């Protein structure tokens, strides 16, 4: 069995934190928070493109955490994680936790058309079949995805990271109003607004086709406020940019955005560059491209302390939900 140790430093001797190719920098930050060295593993590819994994450290009887976002290229990083889980299981790890800061395929969570898959459920099945005993993830696109698993899921919220940022920059909270980019995100945005003590507005939009959004109306008075659009991810940024334009046209003083996962696919960065947005706060669940890093509107906040603390609590069998209490 995994040994539990009350000593705040010594407990890490029973813990091993590994990283896949998508989350190397984030994993180092997590290990820094935990005051432990990153565990050693070789993750590469054979000449034909197949993924090669070899764990260098002894993990027999250890509590193993495998950190890898299923970020673009999604399929490669997902296979990396599955193969790492299998390698850890065959190396006799006591418990294996798949740490997925960004859960890919989360938007395919239901049958919204005839003869389409529920890929979010398939990914859950694959993780379980590979040998994961637990999953730790951040801001699932749909919270009900937790129910797709037959193993425990710790679902973290990055809103505490954003709230902490705004509390250290009180000028940004002046005349602040949180805006939900659509009706489906109202619950998430309302909780965030409550934490900041700010009012809430909603963008009512119609999506004529995939990745295209037409803003119809703003529910709430945004005139004379500093608007903050809050969402879980930014993909092409089409919805975000149109929402920002509509909010500014309705009299907002400024428009900013917060989103946990910076997918930034297709024309996202160009859309952001030529938008009404003054600033976009994102997390490091997905590594940014050089172009994104050089964009002056994009600021990155690290999830490492949040995920690191969650890992420490999982390892010591402590409450994770207490992380999100006011």
Walkthrough of the structure:
Helix 1 crosses helix 9. This protein has 326 residues and is an alpha/beta fold. The N terminus is likely disordered. The protein has a seven-stranded mixed beta sheet, sandwiched between helices. Strands 1-4-5-6-7 form a five-stranded parallel beta sheet, sandwiched between helices. Strands 2-3 form a two-stranded antiparallel ribbon. It is globular, with a radius of gyration of 20 Å.
In short:
This protein is of the alpha/beta class and 326 residues long. It has helices at 24-34, 74-90, 119-130, 159-167, 186-196, 238-249, 268-273, 290-293, 304-315; strands at residues 15-19, 41-45, 51-55, 63-67, 95-100, 134-138, 153-156, 176-180, 200-209, 212-219, 226-234, 254-262, 279-283, 298-301. The strands form three sheets. The chain has a seven-stranded mixed β-sheet with strand order 10-9-8-11-12-13-14, with helices on both faces. Strands 1-4-5-6-7 form a five-stranded parallel β-sheet, with helices on both faces. A two-stranded antiparallel sheet has the order 2-3.
